[in-house]
């Protein structure tokens, strides 16, 4: 029997009273594995009301106790790491190794949330004027909201609600309607960790439910990860309703290959960074920029990419899984066809990929293009599939100029043995996250995820210190006390409680 995905409202898992439901499918088979409700307006209002009520109690809980909840939570996440990865694999299609990485990167952010006290410290200056001191307090905002994508159903929710809640807020999560099951399990474990009733709520739906969240006056912040068009919409709509918004959008991440790089490292890293997770990650390398004679390595790259075969989540020989949906597959195939029609050389074509025993899966094989130019749609658009396009330039300056002309600025990398080339690249490139001999430069959570330009709408980024500032407000106090008010006398006692 197909399960119905519950809502999580006021500390209880409950069935929605909605008349509208969405099919949740297994991407490897397209079989329906669950039914997801589009939460009613009344259910969303109840979730926000519960979160608002809980906030007034939760913000008064000592920061050390909030940190202990996160310590217990990260322990439970580690204990159930493999089970979470299997659940995640079955609803996303990710191979188990990728799913484990998804869960682990989320756990790392929860560990950082357990360090919340040091990130909530204000500043003090004594005697800003005669007998006057000034100091700042870092305080939570209220009810925060997160809208998360299909491709990282553990990591990205864990980017959001643990830090927000550790900082003293409460949180309403709207996970992707395509992969809701992992979020429900995350909530179950959070409850087991001792999180009080109401600090986390989960509602489901699509654009209609998102619009309701964006317009509700009690929602103070909105965090979003997804496509460019939706990120832009979320940012403008949320800020129109006076909310603080961080909206992470698409990307076109370039890897620059210098002629002095280690060829084997380049080829190995390019293959994994481009087709890993079926290319469905905003930090995937989708453009290889070969400088000078390094273009001769494209043949080696083709040979290694051809060895990568997709398969089921529990197939240990599979390099990656299916695309998330039929619609996603159709879009990737369309872009591959456009690349051929526009004159790019398709060195490796995964359009007709099949997987034995799984004829209905959303499979696309590794695909490689050379001879690509910047006016082609396979360069201009984020393909979000296992497709790598290759461009050739004469110099490092040309490579930097090429990347800086691209509208996106999420991540980039350079492979070289030259410290001078690496330093010039990291200094001149207009991209927020830079790798040097590292293909996918996602920072660990004591830093922040710092996409630039068309890859991000907002001011303060995810996790790290910037996220704490995003989920809090600063209050500055100026105080003056007078010496002649100090009590004196023989019977004066001080009692400590």
From TrEMBL:
Q: What class of enzyme is it?
A: oxidoreductase
Q: Which CDD domains match?
A: ALDH_F6_MMSDH
The protein depicted here goes by the name methylmalonate-semialdehyde dehydrogenase (CoA acylating)
Domain of life, per the record? Bacteria
Q: Which PROSITE patterns match?
A: ALDEHYDE_DEHYDR_CYS
**UniProt record similarity statement:** Belongs to the aldehyde dehydrogenase family.
Entries under SUPFAM superfamilies matching the protein: ALDH-like
Q: What is its EC number?
A: 1.2.1.27
Q: Which UniProt keywords apply?
A: NAD, Oxidoreductase
Organism, as annotated: Vibrio variabilis
* Pfam families (alphabetical): Aldedh
Instruction: Report the residue ranges that make up the Aldehyde dehydrogenase domain in this protein.
Output: 15-477
